[in-house]
Design brief:
This protein is an alpha+beta fold. It has a single domain (about 10-295), classed as Jelly Rolls (Sandwich). About 20% of the residues lie in helices and about 20% in strands. It contains 7 helices and 13 strands. The strands form 3 sheets. Strands 1, 2, 3, 4, 6, 10, 12 and 13 form an 8-stranded antiparallel beta sheet that branches. Strands 5-11-7 form a 3-stranded antiparallel beta sheet, with no helix packed on it. The structure holds fe (ii) ion. Fe (ii) ion binds near residues 154, 156 and 248.
């Protein structure tokens, strides 16, 4: 039987709120498989040749080093900012110090590929209206105990820009998300009033870091009040679909539990994805787009 996409009711809820929770999308077995795969990746990566890249969500911080900018077709490890002392020493075991793993798990790791590039996700994409859905990046977000960093309010299409904007996040909870461990919060409906007014680009198109540039003639959306954010109940195995214009954030993880999640992003391949974007896949010898098509699943 052909995989089903969203029901009419789910589609209406997604279009209204800009996000949609699909509980039990991953079976307990698949949640365990992805959790265990994450644990295995964290255990096996080598510190010896790691540049100790720290991933920062602060706009002015230097996130654009070469390790980050060349990670689109690799599995790489980005540290929590608070994982280091002021003198640069690692304060936690490496397994508890990584903020996220990215950005080609959907291509290079069989466990994550299986839950990304499949008939169900193609059907979901098509039911939302995507003609040529492409998966362009994937990450495990670890949100480590006690140091898992706060992610300020943002819109994903700022970071994964197409013209017109088309990014959608598929976000799978691998552990229960609570107020204590930094669950996601959303401003329902903000995708309808908050345009994409800036985008993250490579500076000079080379390896010298990233910057935000304004989108011509698009007004900056207002900053939502804290009370406009809602925190839906999100148990392990839940898939959350997140519209690329939707304002969302998460607080620091103050608890003693992690908050692992797996996420990948999809764009409409028929829209313009240009060379200014920070995320670029090196061309194949055949040329053409190297993003992974959901149509081939
Ligand atoms: Fe996000």
């Amino acid at each position: 039987m052909a995989a089903q996409g969203l029901t009419q009711e789910q589609l209406e809820a997604f279009n209204c709120d800009g996000f949609l929770l699909l509980p039990k999308e991953l079976s307990p077995e698949r949640v365990s498989a992805l959790y265990n795969e994450t644990a295995s990746l964290l255990k096996s990566f080598a510190l010896s040749d790691h540049p100790l890249t720290r991933f920062s969500t602060e706009e002015r911080a230097h996130v654009g080093d070469e390790y980050f900018l060349t990670s689109s077709d690799k599995i790489r490890y980005f540290f929590e900012q608070e994982a280091f002392s002021e003198s640069g020493e690692l304060l936690k075991p490496k397994e508890q110090a990584i903020n996220k793993i990215g950005h080609a798990l959907h291509e290079l790791n069989d466990e994550f590929k299986r839950d990304s590039i499949n008939d169900r996700n193609r059907a979901i994409a098509q039911s939302i209206g995507y003609k040529n859905p492409l998966v362009l990046q994937s990450m495990v977000i670890c949100k480590q105990p006690e140091i898992g960093g706060k992610v300020p309010g943002h819109q994903d299409s700022v970071f994964l820009y197409t013209d017109p904007p088309s990014a959608i996040g598929f976000w799978y909870a691998l552990e229960d998300c609570t107020a204590e461990n930094g669950a996601l919060t959303f401003v329902p409906g903000s995708h309808k009033w908050a345009p994409i007014a800036k985008r993250m680009v490579r500076v000079d198109g080379n390896k010298q870091g990233t910057a935000f540039i304004p989108i011509k003639d698009v007004p900056t959306p207002r900053e939502p009040l804290d009370e406009e954010y809602v925190m839906p109940i999100c148990a392990a195995g839940t898939l959350v679909l997140i519209h690329g214009n939707l304002l969302h954030k998460s607080e620091k993880n103050f608890s003693t539990k992690s908050r692992y999640a797996y996420t990948f992003h999809m764009i409409e391949g028929d829209y313009k994805y240009d060379a200014l974007n920070w995320l670029q896949i090196p061309p194949t010898t055949e040329g053409g787009s190297n993003f992974t098509s959901l149509l081939t699943s």
